[in-house]
TrEMBL record:
Gene Ontology MF, one: serine-type endopeptidase activity
Species of provenance: Eremothecium gossypii (strain ATCC 10895 / CBS 109.51 / FGSC 9923 / NRRL Y-1056) (Yeast)
Name of the molecule in the record: ACR073Cp
PROSITE patterns referenced in this protein's UniProt entry, alphabetically: PRO_ENDOPEP_SER
Taxonomic placement: Eukaryota, Fungi, Dikarya, Ascomycota, Saccharomycotina
Any single GO BP term: proteolysis
Annotated coiled-coil segments of the chain: none
Major location category of this protein: membrane
Location relative to the cell: Vacuole membrane
Length: 872
């Protein structure tokens, strides 16, 4: 799954809900800038002056005839005086009423309509609104670069990289900010009289050629079909590779391009254009070298399922056979204008307990043009990772359907040698995560590495840490790191000269990401690269020899990027980010963003730990959380502020991370005068196995408990209106919203917004679901409890909102329809429904992404204004 909302520049999602990047993951689709529709909510403004008041209230005076009877004149004058006095009294009363209503009342009262003034009442600065967010006023800029490989020895790292500026791809140097060698120029090009738009350019490792992508068509989340051309950097000409290609990958020696067309794998020789066909059985149900839907979504997080050997002598690839996988039809209504019938697309989608695709690992010898097949047997239901650990040896990880037993196999390119399995490991509770965590470490006698080896992530006392296996056939590793913190994602770089392993970890805090290193031969002597005395979330990218580092700071302050020399002998005069190495220069400082922020008044997230009470064993449940307070927040206002909870909560996920973001959540805080709260409860990641694995076999239980416990804490705050507490989530977050409302039954959460929710785990894909729930036949009670099923409890919630796209290929619209049927049968009517034709999981077809967020904000405004309260 994947977090889906796009508003967290960094959780949806979707976040990679693992279900939405989000999120960040939340992260992922961003709020679209298709329209600058600004939410406006009517709010009267009174302006009064002496002139306007008199003009409104003054009555005309009459000229009286001098011959009128004196008595009549006196009577008229008396009446006129009384009239004037009355009008003055009315004016005074009206003015007093307006004055009193302009002063905040510090007593309990019904919720006033949220203000739509674009200016904060005290500072005079602007409030965050949709216009600013959709106009990307708060979106940080991040530079992309491609480090060169193969131009020099890894022991003599030149620090060269390819970077795009405007419409030019150029070779740059870390040593000279002004050095530029143009490789490719232009946003368009022409070949044989046909014009094309450049959509991507990837330089060959030796920079002799470039691979140009054009005519791209989106497939699934991570994949596209496109036309590719080889571009000669010296001759400045184009040569076609093919059309409608699913994959196109350079070989390490720059001699060939491996590509997939019509689900068959081919090798294109750059020198002479010769094409070698590797497979010939590709079809609608057999995929060679590319992922099918479930492998792309849940295993590889990529459409590419091929791996070149280090020198390009071999290609390993998957053959994925979907013949036994059941089809799921999705109707598309708007693909052709004025179409009378919908287009129905059938996707091979394995649901829980149904057949999975059958995957085999293949190795192709390029010179001999010979293919060998590796069959791991029935236990290899899922092959989750493939890494070359030498020129003639492949490491492959595979596991059973429920991700309880992990096997590491070594496969030789010599088909006469059987594969071996040096590691067979059980989880002992919980599950094995799917990820790309292995890094090859080549042999080097000079640097004390007598054998090839690899670094991997293993569990050490319930926390993810680094381990070194050498030789690759070793079953017992050297544990490199340990402690009550976790390595994130695996090793990020290895210095072949110093034997230092670089990695990102939560060593300081579970919601921060700092860069560290440890030496292969000095285990647990962990050294800092980034400054842990300051809060920070960092991303990194290393040059080929691991000497140079692109350091990306993502928050909590304004993001920046800079290049660092880790082997410089000079001292670093720059105080930002790193405490190891020397800053060379900045690639991005986001100065425009800094200026934009000065115009607005808002509160950054306040990070905290919430004590949610005791678990079943009497242990305190401490959850990471943050809150965003509205502008001009006043804690003295009794029973005043609504609380807008946002949740994702999927296994191993994380929303509460100290990244910079000014996005939809700040819009909610500013425009609804609401407190925004995010809580990572049990089941989420980076706090160790006990916190994460408690949800095994029982999704939706502990996650909902923790959201309710947090809502209870906030309902007890003096300034919170406990009748105005809501929960919003997308994808797994939508599921969690419904399970929380179901369990809470209106006690603390009065409103809920569920977008693209799972409602029954039997209907979701097998690879994701069975990792946490096992198969339905082996856990029937767990599946029954995890389903959104107690509609009588949902009926006790004042109101909830459901939204879904009919073209969702991840969490099918079927989930919402099944729930709607349950609600209908039970006569439950306290909900609203919004359906988006043809929209996928991210809900972004035909202006839908604008509408979905407008609807969330408007609907929450109605809820907080009492529109859904039964007058009885």
């Amino acid at each position: 799954m994947v977090p889906s909302p796009a508003f967290v520049d960094g959780p949806a999602g979707c976040f990679k809900c693992r279900f939405c990047e989000s999120s960040r993951r939340y992260q992922e689709p961003a709020i679209r800038s298709l329209q600058h529709n600004r939410l406006t909510m009517a709010a009267q403004q009174y302006r009064y002056s002496d002139h306007s008041m008199s003009s409104t209230l003054k009555l005309p005076e009459e000229d009286y005839d001098e011959l009128e009877d004196e008595c009549k004149r006196q009577n008229r004058q008396l009446a006129l005086n009384f009239t004037r006095i009355g009008l003055v009294v009315v004016a005074l009363v009206w003015g007093t009423f307006l004055l009193l209503n302009s002063i905040p009342v510090l007593e309990e009262s019904s919720r006033a309509q949220p203000t739509t003034s674009s200016r904060a009442t005290r500072s005079g600065k602007l409030k965050v609104d949709f216009e600013a967010v959709r106009g990307q006023k708060f979106k940080p800029r991040f530079q992309q670069l491609q480090w060169t490989h193969g131009l020099s020895s890894v022991h003599d790292d030149k620090g060269l990289f390819v970077k795009k500026e405007d419409d030019v791809y150029s070779l740059k140097s870390v040593f000279d900010e002004n050095y530029t060698r143009e490789l490719f120029r232009g946003n368009t090009f022409e070949h044989e009289g046909v014009g094309y738009v450049v959509e991507g350019f990837v330089a060959a490792p030796d920079l002799s050629y470039g691979l140009v992508r054009t005519n791209s068509t989106k497939n699934w989340r991570h994949s596209t079909f496109a036309t590719y051309f080889v571009y000669s950097i010296e001759k400045r000409d184009f040569h076609p590779v093919g059309q409608k290609l699913a994959v196109a990958e350079w070989s390490p020696d720059s001699q060939r391009i491996a590509y997939v067309k019509d689900n068959d794998l081919y090798l294109h020789s750059v020198a002479d254009g010769k094409v070698s066909r590797v497979t010939s059985d590709g079809s609608a149900t057999i995929f060679n070298g590319r992922s099918d839907w479930v492998y792309e979504e849940e295993v590889l997080s990529s459409g590419v399922a091929l791996w070149w050997s280090p020198t390009g002598k071999y290609v390993a690839y998957f053959k994925i056979n979907e013949e036994q996988v059941h089809e799921f039809p999705i109707a598309y209504y708007l693909q052709e204008a004025d179409a009378l019938y919908p287009e129905v697309r059938k996707i091979k989608y394995p649901k829980s307990g149904t057949p999975n695709p059958i995957v085999t690992l293949n190795i192709f010898d390029v010179a001999a043009e010979k293919n060998s097949v590796v069959n791991f047997g029935d236990n290899a239901t899922l092959i989750t990772e493939v890494v070359w650990v030498g020129e003639n040896q492949v490491l492959a990880k595979y596991m059973d359907r429920s991700a309880q037993v992990l096997t590491v196999a070594l496969v030789s390119t010599d088909e006469n040698k059987p594969f071996t399995t040096p590691r067979v490991e059980s989880t002992n509770g919980g599950w094995w995560d799917v990820g790309q965590t292995v890094m090859y470490v080549p042999r080097n006698d000079t640097n004390d590495r007598a054998n090839d080896g690899y670094i991997d992530v293993v569990s050490v006392n319930g926390y993810n840490h680094l381990a070194y296996y050498s030789p690759p056939s070793a079953s017992t590793p050297t544990i490199l790191t340990s402690g009550a913190w976790e390595v994130v994602g695996g090793p990020v770089a290895f210095d072949l000269d110093t034997n230092d392993v670089f990695f990102i970890a939560t060593r300081k805090s579970s919601n921060e990401r700092h860069l560290y290193y440890v030496n292969l031969f000095q285990p647990n002597d962990v050294q800092e690269v980034t400054d842990t005395s300051k809060e920070g979330v960092y991303d990194v990218s290393f040059s080929e020899g691991s000497r140079f580092l692109l350091l990306t700071y993502r928050g909590p302050g304004v993001p920046y990027q800079k290049l660092v020399d880790l082997k410089s002998l000079g001292s670093d005069s720059d105080s930002n980010g790193n405490v190891f190495g020397e800053t060379l220069y900045y690639l991005e400082e986001n100065n425009a963003l800094k200026e934009n922020l000065k115009e607005y008044s808002f509160n950054y997230p306040k990070f905290q730990e919430l004590n949610l009470g005791d678990d079943s064993e009497g242990q305190k449940v401490i959850a990471n959380s943050y809150e965003i307070l509205p502008p001009d927040f006043d804690s003295n206002l009794r029973n005043h502020y609504p609380v807008f909870f946002f949740a994702y909560g999927g296994p191993g996920s994380q929303l509460v991370k100290k990244e910079f973001a000014v996005s939809f959540l700040q819009v909610v805080a500013a425009q609804l005068d609401a407190i925004v709260v995010v809580v990572d409860g049990r089941g989420t990641g980076f706090k160790g196995k006990p916190f994460r694995a408690v949800v095994t076999g029982d999704l939706g239980h502990y996650e909902a408990e923790d959201q309710i416990a947090a809502a209870k804490l906030y309902s007890e705050k003096y300034y919170v209106n406990k009748e105005r507490i809501s929960l919003f989530g997308w994808s797994y977050g939508g599921y969690l919203t419904l399970k929380t409302l179901e369990r809470d039954a209106g006690r603390y959460f009065k409103y809920g917004i569920a977008v693209a929710p799972v409602t029954d785990w039997r209907l979701y894909d097998s690879v994701y679901t069975e990792r946490y729930m096992s198969e339905p036949l082996s856990n029937p009670r767990g599946y029954a409890d995890a389903k959104v099923h107690n509609v009588s409890a949902l009926a006790k919630v004042p109101r909830f909102l459901l939204m879904h796209g009919t073209g969702d290929d991840n969490v099918h619209f079927q989930h919402t329809l099944v729930l709607l049927d349950q609600l209908n049968l039970a006569g439950v009517e306290n909900y609203d429904l919004l359906v988006f034709p043809d929209s996928r999981h991210s809900i972004d077809i035909h202006n839908a992404n604008v509408i979905v967020y407008d609807k969330i904000l408007n609907w929450a405004n109605q809820a907080y204004s009492g529109a859904f309260v039964d007058p009885k």
